[in-house]
Write a structure and sequence with these properties.
Order of helices and strands: HHH
Strand content: under 5%
Number of strands: 0
Largest sheet: none
Distance between the termini: 62 Å
Shape: elongated
Number of helices: 3
Length: about 80
Amino acid sequence: MRTIVDIPDSQVKILDQMSKKKNVSRPSVIREALAKYINSYSYSKKGYELAFGIWKSKKLDSLKYQQKLRDEWGS
């Protein structure tokens, strides 16, 4: 898919430098960056979903648990 995106000149210069250093095209650098961004977003969202409700099945008095943790700090 083709799309039009406004990119500041300063970022275009950096993209050009990166593409020359990697010996690839500017669109290739942009696709790689976009893929990394999407992967990191997907990964962080999955991690959150996995962690949400992790203590749900535990039969636990939260105040006692909190006090136990604080007792570990010592006085």
